[in-house]
Specification:
7-stranded mixed sheet, Metallo-beta-lactamase, Chain A, binds zinc ion, alpha/beta, 20% strand, 12 strands
């Protein structure tokens, strides 16, 4: 585990997607996302290396319902960890709302393969608490930014000026996420790309301040993240 900013740490051994620990000490330890199910042992190892077990976690806050981010939620829940997600994704996860399917479209062959996998084996889960836009939890503000999934959110940590953005604003280019730079959500993986872009634009127009971007994929962008995101949006005609 590697400190990123303030009390936020990165579980650096996880490779598929980013998992963050907000460590406010006993009774105030939260994971933002929990990784792909294929990395369950690595997740447990990362926690153990920090002297923690699942029972030391206060809860998990999902940025969205996709299996590379919510893949270990059911396992953690079985260990007594409370799982939180935005209401719209919570309803998809428990089957009370229809699940938007992914289509390859113009995306790469790999993206098409991953999309079919997600469509075929989605995470199914009944969350412990559904979140709404404007909620405050774990020192974070919940900002609903639908489009990548029905209930995608940004979590803004006002004290450190960090934005945990899931896959609605990326720090690496999908689907391989080797090239490290700010990137818009990848079309193949969005249930509604136009809505995702509109959400991204609206969030930045609303004036919420942040300095650091902790995205679902890619390394942390520290210091000038908001300026770089605005430059990206302007370059894409979304300013
Ligand atoms: Zn992802």
């Amino acid at each position: 585990m590697r400190p990123v900013v303030g009390s936020i740490l990165h579980l650096r051994r996880l490779l598929v997607s980013n998992v963050w620990l907000l460590d406010g000490g006993p009774g105030d330890r939260w994971l933002v996302d929990c990784g792909h199910w294929a990395e369950r042992a690595t997740l447990a190892l990362e926690l153990r290396a920090a002297g923690l077990g699942p029972r030391d976690l206060t809860g998990v806050l999902l940025t969205h319902r996709h299996s590379d981010h919510a893949g270990n939620a059911r396992w953690l829940q079985s260990q007594g960890v409370k799982i939180h997600a935005h209401r719209a994704d919570a309803e998809v996860l428990d089957g009370t709302r229809p699940r938007g399917l992914l289509e390859r479209g113009e995306g790469s062959r790999l993206a098409g393969f991953l999309a079919r996998f997600e469509n075929r084996w989605p995470v199914r889960l009944t969350v412990d608490r559904a979140l709404d836009d404007g909620d405050a939890i774990a020192g974070l503000e919940v900002h609903w930014v639908p489009g990548h999934t029905e209930g995608s959110v940004f979590y803004r940590h006002a004290t450190t000026r960090a934005l945990l953005s899931g896959d609605t604003l990326l720090a690496a280019v999908p689907p391989l996420t080797i090239e490290q730079r700010l990137a818009l959500p990848y079309p193949t993986f969005c249930v509604d790309l136009a809505q995702a872009l509109a959400s991204l634009r609206a969030f930045h127009r609303s004036g919420f301040d942040y300095a650091h971007l902790l995205a679902g994929h890619g390394r942390p962008v520290l210091g000038d993240a908001r300026a770089r995101a605005e430059a990206l949006l302007a370059a894409e005609g979304l300013g």
